[in-house]
Design goal:
- By secondary structure, the protein is an all-alpha fold.
- The chain has one domain: Rna Polymerase Sigma Factor, Chain: A.
- Helices cover about 65% and strands about 0% of the residues.
- It has 10 helices and no strands.
- The termini are close together.
Length: about 220
């Protein structure tokens, strides 16, 4: 599949990876997926509102991206381009199933960190409160929040992914933060980045599914 040494493959830039994949080195697409799986998962999860179809949507989004790699011109970061494809696929899937309830429960969060039982209890309760607040957000607010506060995309990157104006990104993010009650961000034991983790087993499943279909 490829003659590039593993260490060198990991050091390749996104632009180099795309060029090699377009030339026929399909095995390198695994690196692209593993570099972006966490972000893609969180973005798709935010749009769908539940965990049932996330992996299917991720795989389809990656296949869509693979088929259109020749159209990637490098004007935006590869991660932004991939996220936009994934969001569009998630929105299409969401539209097909005609969701009527925006407030479906979110995914189970990570177990509480730290050995202190009292701290674990507090962190667990706080995570539960955060989960309920995130689940209660309307999908447009939830998606912006995930991209900006969880994934750390800039306003311009989020606008590009969602194909909306930067002003609208700012408005939705401000509204989402207000609804979440900003004091939740400051409590000890929980950070936004610790939420909605994409575990190794799930990562391996998505990569294996896409690579099998490419072969």
């Amino acid at each position: 599949m490829t003659t590039t040494a593993p260490a060198l493959r990991e050091q390749m830039s996104d632009r180099e990876l795309v060029a090699r994949i377009v030339e026929g080195d399909d095995a390198l697409f695994e690196i692209v997926m593993r570099r972006n799986n966490q972000r893609i998962y969180r973005a798709v999860r935010a749009v769908l509102g539940d965990d049932n179809e996330v992996e299917d949507v991720m795989q389809q989004a990656y296949l869509n991206a693979y088929r259109n790699l020749r159209s990637f011109e490098g004007r935006a970061q590869l991660s932004t381009w991939l996220t936009r494809i994934a969001v569009n696929e998630a929105l299409a899937r969401r539209g097909k199933r005609h969701i009527g309830n925006e407030d479906e429960s979110m995914i189970h969060l990570l177990e509480s960190p730290g050995p202190d039982p009292e701290q674990e209890t507090f962190a667990s309760e706080l995570r539960d409160a955060m989960q309920r607040e995130v689940a209660a957000l309307p999908q447009p607010f939830r998606t912006v929040l995930m991209l900006r506060d969880v994934e750390g995309l800039s306003t311009s990157e989020t606008a590009a992914v969602l194909d909306i104006s930067e002003d609208l990104v700012k408005t939705r993010l401000s509204r989402a933060r207000t609804l979440l009650r900003n004091n939740l961000y400051r409590h000890a034991g929980v950070t936004m980045q610790s939420l909605f983790a994409f575990g190794n087993a799930r990562c391996d499943r998505v990569v294996a599914g896409v690579m099998a279909r490419l072969r």
